[in-house]
Every structure is written in structure tokens, then in C-alpha cells.
Design goal:
With 271 residues, this protein is α/β, with parallel strands linked by helices. 43% of the residues lie in helices and 22% in strands. It has two domains: 152 residues, Periplasmic binding protein-like II (D-Maltodextrin-Binding Protein, domain 2), CATH 3.40.190; 93 residues, Periplasmic binding protein-like II (D-Maltodextrin-Binding Protein, domain 2), CATH 3.40.190.10. The strands form two sheets. Strands 2-1-3-10-4-11 form a six-stranded mixed beta sheet. Helix 1 links the parallel strand 1 and strand 2. Helix 1 crosses helix 8 and helix 9 crosses helix 10. The chain is globular and about 55 Å long.
């Protein structure tokens, strides 16, 4: 089986034990940014993958959710950030660069501008790699996700910094689910369930050994180990009832605005 993995440090807790040989996985791991994995799942090139929550909502009839596995937060997320030279409320008609690599973060940002900050900026697709950010300083604000957001958040380059997970929590009082794990409908159910069990086992090891993963994250990004540890501690890798409430509220708002079709949550279960 081909299994998608995002190479950002926010996935370390799910794959850390697999990478170390502590948990065996019957399949081939394929790395890609969120939008790339979305495309590979949609084309059938992957059997199981972590995907953007919006990708599931966009084509829920194609996928089955893997139970109790997601990337979510209940407050600050620290790696999905709006960096701005102006208060968000004053960004109307101003240029805001949005990352091409995350559909969910862009959809969430649009909702926050419309419902919390009550203004409409000019969204400009761009790149979120830290080297690209340093090379291009011409825009009023930018959405940055993943490891690059951790690098930029303490740089002092932007006077206004908004954590999208924190703003969502203040607005709705719900957790926010950024990514979910899915299997293609039609995949071999027994093998998919076995992969799911190994991912859960690896996730549980990763949560219990966060300090090891924080040091690995420091080595990969240069961000201080204690900052990486704080970041990982703020993420939740379950998909509990409160997480599902946040996910369905997000989907409800997207459906209401016609951005995704109405659908249902369908889970991988034993045949």
C-alpha cells in the first residue's frame, strides 16, 4: 500500500515510531506537502494519506475517514499564522499572500476575514517556504503554515501576528481540525485497518516521547527545542467528539457559502 505523509514536524508524532522501526508498517511512505497529497489521493496514486480537512469535504464520496486520527488544536496552533503589517481589520483590498500548500488554512482564513475581521483582502497565491518569504517582502500580509511559520513567528518582522487556531477558538469555542487521515473507497479493508492500527500505535508512542521528537524538530528546523516542544504539546492527534464538532461546524460554514458540497462523515470500519 502507498501511504502519504506530510514532511512537516507536525506529523512527527504520528510517524516517529515507524521511522525508528519501533512500529512496523506494511506499506510504502510517500512524502508530500498537503496539496500534493490531496492530488495523489484524488488521482488514486495513494491508498491512505493524511489530507487537508477541506479535501475530505470537497470529495467525501471518494474517501473514508480513519477513526481517532487527525491534526487539530483547541486554541493556538502556532504553525498556521497570518503575519501582517496592518491590523487584520484594515486589510480590505490589500494584498495577502496565501500558501498554495494548504487548502484548509486558506479556507479558514477566508472565513475569519469575512466573519471576524469583516473585511475582504486581495488573496494572492504564493509560496510558504522561508527562503521565499525572505526573498519577497512586497505584500501587506501573508498566511504562512508549517515549519516556516515557526521560524517566522518570533522574527519580529511583522507587527501583527494572528494564530488562526486561536482566532477560530475565540470565535466558535470549538477545536479546529486541520488535517485528517483517509483511505480510498474500494481499498482493501483488512490491509487498511492494519495500517490504521499501526498509525495509532505509532501516534501513541510519539505523544509519549514528545521530548525526543522536539529535539528532532530542532535539528530539522533550527527552531529552539523548547519552542518545538511547546508547539507539539499544543497539537492533538485524536478525532474525539469535540474535534468532530469543530470539524462539522467548519464544514457547515463552507457548505453554507457554497465552497464545498454537502456531504457526510464516513469512517473506515471492518467489513
Amino acid at each position: 500500500m502507498k501511504i502519504g505523509r506530510i514532511p512537516y514536524i507536525n506529523c512527527y508524532p504520528v510517524y516517529g515510531a515507524i521511522d525508528r522501526g519501533i512500529v512496523s508498517l506494511d506499506g510504502e511512505l510517500v512524502d508530500g506537502i498537503p496539496t500534493a497529497l490531496n492530488g495523489m489521493m484524488a488521482s488514486g496514486a495513494l491508498d491512505i494519506s493524511v489530507v487537508s480537512a477541506v479535501e475530505y469535504a470537497r470529495d467525501s464520496e471518494r474517501y473514508l475517514l480513519l477513526p481517532d486520527l487527525a491534526i487539530s488544536c483547541d486554541g493556538p496552533v502556532r504553525s498556521v499564522m497570518l503575519f501582517s503589517r496592518l491590523p487584520a481589520e484594515r486589510l480590505g483590498s490589500r494584498s495577502v499572500v496565501v500558501s498554495r500548500s494548504s487548502m484548509t488554512s486558506v479556507a479558514l482564513l477566508q472565513l475569519l476575514f469575512e466573519n471576524v475581521w469583516h473585511t475582504l483582502p486581495d488573496f494572492v497565491p504564493g509560496d510558504a517556504e522561508i527562503r521565499d518569504i525572505r526573498a519577497d517582502d512586497s505584500h501587506d500580509a501573508r498566511l504562512v503554515i508549517g515549519d516556516a511559520a515557526l521560524v517566522l513567528r518570533d522574527s519580529g518582522r511583522y507587527p501583527y501576528v494572528y494564530d488562526l487556531g486561536e482566532v477560530w477558538k475565540s470565535w466558535t469555542d470549538l477545536p479546529f481540525v486541520f488535517a485528517v487521515w483517509v483511505a480510498r473507497r474500494g481499498v482493501n479493508v483488512s490491509r487498511a485497518l492494519a495500517v490504521h492500527a499501526r498509525l495509532i500505535e505509532s501516534r501513541d508512542w510519539g505523544v509519549a516521547h514528545r521530548a525526543i521528537l522536539a529535539r528532532q524538530a530542532h535539528d530539522a528546523t533550527g527552531v529552539a527545542t523548547e519552542v518545538c516542544d511547546q508547539y507539539l504539546s499544543g497539537l492533538d492527534y485524536r478525532l474525539s467528539y469535540p474535534h468532530l464538532a469543530g470539524l462539522t461546524e467548519f464544514f457547515r460554514r463552507l457548505v453554507k457559502q457554497g465552497r464545498v458540497p454537502n456531504g457526510t462523515l464516513s469512517f473506515l470500519t471492518a467489513a
